[in-house]
Design goal:
It is a single chain. The chain is an alpha+beta fold and about 170 residues long. The protein folds into two domains: about 35 residues; about 120 residues, Immunoglobulins (Immunoglobulin-like, Sandwich). The longest helix is centred in the first third of the chain and has 26 residues. The protein has one helix and twelve strands, in the order ββαββββββββββ. The strands form three sheets. The chain has a five-stranded antiparallel beta sheet, with no helix packed on it.
């Protein structure tokens, strides 16, 4: 059998095997911790007596006439009038000029835009309220005239699984 240590040096094959197992261990740890942070949503059916129920103040926003350089924010109240926690997920918008941010229990969510964040889950307890900030910044995607944009999100309310909030403006 060949001596692993010849003149104080480690055989490159052995060093490669050790390196492979160290990388495998690190990769496993990263996967384990990233999976542990992933939030799971709880689903309900329409026949469940105990379930979340989303009450939303409005689903249509008219920002009126605005300039390309303007930034308009409209705040919408959300309330869980059900008996189980309401989970809000998969928030995204139809354009990068439009964004959305939820405020639940004084905690602000990330600012969501065209690219959804599938791991974020906001939870609204029964009888609790939250606000959704609908933000329109036309200078990010300059257009003139009538504009319509949409904010999308999902909930675990079986009556409102897919929610859309329509925003319109006249940009000049």
């Amino acid at each position: 059998m060949k001596n692993l240590f010849s003149k104080g040096k480690i055989d490159p094959v052995i060093l490669g095997i050790i390196g492979f197992f160290v990388l495998l261990l690190l990769g496993s740890l990263i996967f384990l911790f990233s999976s542990a942070k992933e939030n799971k949503t709880v689903t309900y059916s329409k026949s469940d007596a105990e379930r979340p129920k989303l009450q939303i103040e409005k689903t249509n926003i008219d920002l009126g006439r605005i300039k390309v350089a303007d930034k308009k924010i409209s705040v919408i109240k959300l309330k869980n009038v059900g008996s189980k926690p309401l989970q809000i997920t998969n928030v995204f918008t139809s354009c990068d000029c439009t964004s959305a941010q939820l405020v639940i229990n004084g905690q602000e969510s990330p600012v969501f835009s065209m690219h959804e964040n599938p791991t974020w889950v906001g939870e609204l307890q029964p009888n609790a309220e939250a606000t959704l900030k609908a933000i329109y910044e036309p200078y990010k995607m300059p257009v003139h005239g009538a504009v319509e944009r949409t904010i999308y999100f999902k909930t675990n309310d079986p009556d409102k699984t897919d929610v859309q909030i329509q925003m319109k403006a006249n940009v000049n």
